Each structure stands twice: as structure tokens, then as C-alpha cells.
Backbone:
């Protein structure tokens, strides 16, 4: 398996698709990219679905001219963005994305969700079978049965399922309770945890007096439960003070302690600086258990509209 950093940086917000707002520009994002690369965080997670190519284009602009070995790109096949009726839909999507990003290959490539996933996983396998420079192949938003099915499809073509990317945080441990984390450990599959900070809800920045700005999808999801999130953030701050870091760094450190590779969305230089510090924190098993016990007691449903309970 390729050597990966402890943390991946997510460019979902860079797509300006309304999930996080729509006012991000290349000029404001470039210092974030530069800070990350300077600190060895060189794995970038994007998708065509993030603004219909907008995120990929912005990232491609930053990567242009850099040595190819200096960065890693994780991209996705989103079934809903493909022409399902075309027999060359997989090939067309991958090659369109490579052209858009001015790359010869991706380092990680995913089936983005489970919509007709067995068909698309088969197409993915056919596309990469026998090729050189095959990226790590992964599936996202899949439950355990769907992950096992994907692994079998790839195996039949001489390929390996190397990565799983699901929502995992202190308030959404569905992928752990369902046995997905254990399955990944047993089968040398890297588990990428997205939304570890619940789109900023677990950063300590927002509370009932300071809600998320209205008009974004995340505000609709988290503002109604900020009273419960405040309780968890208070505990996170307590641990952050102990480690002399900020609140946002503790959920990231928790995800690393769980043996996962967290994907942290970055829209400010400070997000990168937090990620660097979080990578150097080692929570004790007792601290991890205490955080999970408190989070579970709050009974927050953090499963978003595009997701399902992982059973």
C-alpha cells in the first residue's frame, strides 16, 4: 500500500456547492494548500460531484508544475454524475477527470456511493484490470455487506479493495458498531473517516449563542442540536486544554486513535495548522472511552440526508 500521511485534506467545500457556502476562491484557498504541503500533508481528497468539477479544477491549479511524487490525489466516480446508459461511462468519467486535473493517474479512486454500486464496481475492475499504476481502489458510503461484495468483485479481476471511506465521528460511530472498522483492520483496508468534525460542529466554534450561519445545509443539520453539541464540546475543550491545543484537534486525534485516516475539510489556514497538531496527539484509551461514553449519552442523530445507518 502507498505510504499515506496520518490525515487527508478534503476539498469538498472548494466546490462551492452550497454545503459550506459558496464564496471560496482560488486566491483564498491557495495559502491553505501551501501551508499543508509545507507541513507534509499532501493527500488531497476531491470529487467531480463537488461543484461539478469546480473542486477538481481549483486543486488542479494548485498542483500544476509540482513534482508528481510530491502529492497524492484521491478522486471519485459518482454514479449520479455519469451517463448510466453508456457502456463506456466508467472510462469516460475517469478520463474526463484526469484531463480536467491534468494528471496521468490518480493515487486513490473510489466508487462514491452505493447507487447501482455492484455494476459500477465491476466496471471499475474491468477498467483497471491488467493496467500499470493502478490506484488504491476504494468504496465510500457502503455498509459491511456492500464492502464485502465490492471486495469480491475486485478480487475476481485480480484487484484488491484497499480503502473504505465513510462518515465517522464521535456522534456517528455507525461504521464502528457495524463491524466495518474491524473488517478493514483484518483485511489491510485503510478506513478513511470523513466528517470527523461534523462540518465544524465539533470544533468548539459554534454553540446555541453562536449558531452556524443560516443558509447552508450544515446549519440546517446542526443548529437544532447545538444544545447537545455544547455538552460534548465542553468535554473536548477540557481535553484540548490538557494537551495545550484547540478543541477541533481532539476529535481528529480521536479518529487517529481509532486506527482510521481522517479527512479534514480545509477552508482556512488554521484548519491545516490544527490538523498538523492533531496528528501529534496520542489520546489514552481511557480518554477515548470517556469521550465515546459522553457522546453516546447525548443520542444525536448525525446521519445526513445522503447517508444511511451502517448495519
Residues:
Amino acid at each position: 500500500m502507498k505510504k499515506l500521511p496520518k490525515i487527508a485534506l478534503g476539498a469538498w467545500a472548494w466546490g462551492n456547492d452550497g454545503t459550506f457556502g459558496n464564496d471560496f476562491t482560488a486566491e483564498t484557498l491557495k495559502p491553505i494548500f501551501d501551508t499543508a504541503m509545507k507541513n507534509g500533508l499532501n493527500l488531497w481528497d476531491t470529487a467531480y460531484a463537488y461543484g461539478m468539477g469546480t473542486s477538481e479544477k481549483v486543486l488542479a491549479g494548485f498542483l500544476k508544475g509540482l513534482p508528481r511524487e510530491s502529492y497524492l490525489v484521491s478522486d471519485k466516480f459518482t454514479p449520479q454524475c455519469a451517463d448510466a446508459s453508456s457502456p463506456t461511462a466508467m472510462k469516460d468519467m475517469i478520463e474526463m477527470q484526469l484531463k480536467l486535473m491534468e494528471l496521468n493517474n490518480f493515487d486513490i479512486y473510489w466508487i462514491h456511493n452505493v447507487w447501482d454500486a455492484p455494476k459500477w464496481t465491476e466496471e471499475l475492475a474491468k477498467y483497471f484490470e491488467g493496467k500499470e499504476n493502478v490506484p488504491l481502489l476504494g468504496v465510500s458510503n457502503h455498509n459491511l455487506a456492500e464492502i464485502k461484495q465490492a471486495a469480491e468483485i475486485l478480487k475476481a479481476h485480480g484487484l484488491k479493495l484497499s480503502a473504505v471511506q465513510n462518515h465517522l465521528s464521535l456522534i456517528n460511530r455507525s461504521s464502528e458498531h457495524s463491524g466495518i472498522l474491524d473488517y478493514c483492520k483484518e483485511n489491510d483496508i485503510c478506513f478513511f473517516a470523513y466528517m470527523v468534525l461534523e462540518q465544524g460542529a465539533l470544533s468548539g466554534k459554534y454553540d446555541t449563542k453562536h449558531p452556524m450561519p443560516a443558509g447552508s445545509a450544515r446549519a440546517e443539520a446542526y443548529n437544532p442540536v447545538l444544545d447537545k453539541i455544547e455538552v460534548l464540546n465542553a468535554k473536548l475543550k477540557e481535553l484540548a486544554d490538557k494537551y495545550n491545543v484547540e478543541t477541533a484537534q481532539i476529535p481528529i486525534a480521536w479518529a487517529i486513535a481509532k486506527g482510521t485516516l481522517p479527512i479534514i475539510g480545509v477552508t482556512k489556514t488554521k484548519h491545516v495548522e490544527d490538523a498538523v497538531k492533531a496528528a501529534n496527539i496520542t489520546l489514552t484509551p481511557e480518554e477515548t472511552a470517556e469521550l465515546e461514553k459522553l457522546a453516546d449519552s447525548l443520542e444525536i442523530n448525525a446521519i445526513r440526508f445522503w447517508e444511511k445507518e451502517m448495519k
